[in-house]
Design brief:
With 279 residues, the chain is of the alpha+beta class. The protein folds into 2 domains: 121 residues, MutM-like, N-terminal (N-terminal domain of MutM-like DNA repair proteins), CATH 3.20.190; 134 residues, Helicase, Ruva Protein, domain 3 (Orthogonal Bundle). The protein is built from 6 helices and 10 strands, in the order αβαβββββββααααββ. Helix 1 runs parallel beside helix 6. It binds zinc ion. Zinc ion binds next to loops.
């Protein structure tokens, strides 16, 4: 499932293709993805020039000079195929720009979505309203982390996955960030230590920046928009590595289920609270 680094990678890959370009044709090959496509999607985008590409949490944002913002959600399997050649069955929406480039939104499982918002109102759009601060943004710091953990009984893993508290973190990068910070995923938020916070505040942006630099991960059916496959998954320390040796201490990586999702961690590097020194 595309997480923040994958969406960032897709938008960075699209920027040189779309920025400053006019949409000459936008064709929807079906009326819906996860939800119905916006009414008059083609009319609102055709003739508009792309001003800026961006990202908020796991949503790609495409701002046009008509005051519209296209909100792209890749869902589980969504991909942006650049100059795809012959269209495939799951190329549901096809964008053509004045530079002769073609981009197809391909989504076999159709958990993705395309929405249009008036740019000025975009932050209040139901998809974007209420999302917490960006972990790579200006509002992210130690004080923010301490604030969202303070007094909470919820496990650290669950807190970091909560999009209302902090934006864009999914299962993979939360597992990796907690590993680097030496925090057991079941540690209640309120019991994370000062030393752990100091490591966590660094490890979250670190894992994201490294993943973006690596071109995004390509688990399952995600690919960077130029077709280049990323390679960050080989650098995962714990995610998906149950039973394999922890890269730090060689203990076998463990897996537990939290809120219906797998948490991977090293029981030695991320000891449960009761065995840890009360430093
Ligand atoms: Zn370890």
């Amino acid at each position: 499932m595309p997480e923040l680094p994958e969406v960032e990678t897709v938008m960075r890959g699209l920027a040189p293709v779309w920025e400053g370009q006019r949409f000459t044709r936008v064709i929807a090959n079906r009326p819906d993805l996860r939800r119905p496509l916006p009414e008059a999607l083609g009319q609102r985008l055709t003739g508009a020039t792309v001003v800026r590409l961006g990202r908020r949490a796991k949503y790609g944002l495409v701002e046009t000079d008509r005051g519209d913002t296209l909100i792209i959600h890749l869902g589980m399997s969504g991909r942006m195929r650049v100059d795809p050649g012959p269209l495939e069955k799951h190329d549901h929406v096809v964008f053509e720009t004045g530079n002769g480039r073609v981009v197809a939104f391909n989504d076999a499982r159709r958990f993705g979505s395309l929405d249009l918002a008036v740019t000025a109102d975009a932050p209040a759009h139901p998809l974007l309203a209420g999302i917490g601060p960006e972990p790579l943004g200006p509002d992210y710091d130690l004080a923010l982390l301490k604030r969202i953990f303070a007094g909470r009984l919820a496990p650290a893993k669950v807190i970091l996955l909560d999009q209302r508290l902090i934006a864009g973190l999914g299962n993979i990068y939360v597992c990796e960030a907690l590993f680097r910070a030496g925090i057991h995923p079941q540690t209640p938020g309120g019991q994370v230590t000062a030393a752990q916070f100091k490591r966590l505040v660094l490890s979250i942006p670190e894992v994201l920046v490294e993943a973006i630099a690596a071109g995004g991960s390509t688990l399952r059916d995600h690919a960077a928009p130029d077709g280049t496959l990323g390679y960050f998954q080989k650098d995962f320390a714990v995610y998906g590595r149950e039973g394999a040796a922890c890269p730090a201490c060689a203990a076998p990586v463990a897996r537990i289920i939290q809120s219906g999702r797998s948490s991977f961690f090293c029981p030695a590097c991320q000891p449960p609270l009761r065995t840890r020194d009360k430093a």
